[in-house]
Amino acid sequence: MYKFPSHRTNTGFTLIELMTVVAVLAVTLSIAVPGMQRTISSTRLRTEASRLLSALVLARSEAVGRNSLVSVCPSAFGSDGIARCSNSYADGWIVFSNRDKDRVVDKGSDEIIRVFSGLPSGYSLTNKAGTIDAHELISYYPDGSSRKNRTLMICPVSGHSTPSWSVVMNMVGRPRIAKGWGECS
């Protein structure tokens, strides 16, 4: 004959064990979350720098391929549909053939090659010193040169301690990206 045990064994967690796990989880999250936010912010900045870099590489290759001047200028064309250069790369930018070397996209003679949307809200695109919003026309000549050294720095939303990402161009026209190349104000 089989005898039943006189007491049952409880399987589960005690309140002390459960509170210990919750405390360890809280400490781990409080350490990990700020580091994750910096990583996300840095990734967003690098993505925006890469978008600007791709516009410059496209403009350079189109200038060589078309054997004519191709320019990149700030433009809100992506949001307002008006093909014109504006005063801030934060609104977006366009790559266009620029036969008469001005800041105007002329119907009939100039062609919009590609349109890029603006930066996320709060981000800015400035000079290396971080003091002036970038707004100048960047032109590539048929030989692939830009004939001017430039640094365009993308800064995070103010208050973030994330290092900036910059697009650095030499006179020959070769653009590259660099981390922490300037100080955001």
What does this structure look like?
The protein has 185 residues and is an alpha+beta fold. The chain has one domain: minor pseudopilin epsh domain (minor pseudopilin epsh fold, 3-Layer(bab) Sandwich), CATH 3.55.40.10. It contains two helices and eight strands, in the order H-E-H-E-E-E-E-E-E-E. The chain has a four-stranded antiparallel beta sheet. Strand 7 and strand 8 form a beta hairpin. It starts with 14 loop residues before the first helix and ends in a 6-residue tail after the last strand. The relative contact order is 0.16. The mean pLDDT is 86.
Could you give a quick summary of the protein structure above?
The chain has helices at 15-66, 77-80; strands at residues 70-74, 92-97, 112-117, 124-126, 138-140, 150-155, 165-169, 175-179. It has 185 residues and is α+β, with helices and mostly antiparallel strands.
How many helical elements? 2
| Integer count of domains | 1
Uncertain residue ranges? none
Number of strands: 8
Structure keywords:
single chain; 185 residues; alpha+beta; minor pseudopilin epsh fold; four-stranded antiparallel beta sheet; 2 helices; 8 strands; 21% strand; elongated
Write the layout of secondary structure elements.
Elements: H1 15-66, E1 70-74, H2 77-80, E2 92-97, E3 112-117, E4 124-126, E5 138-140, E6 150-155, E7 165-169, E8 175-179
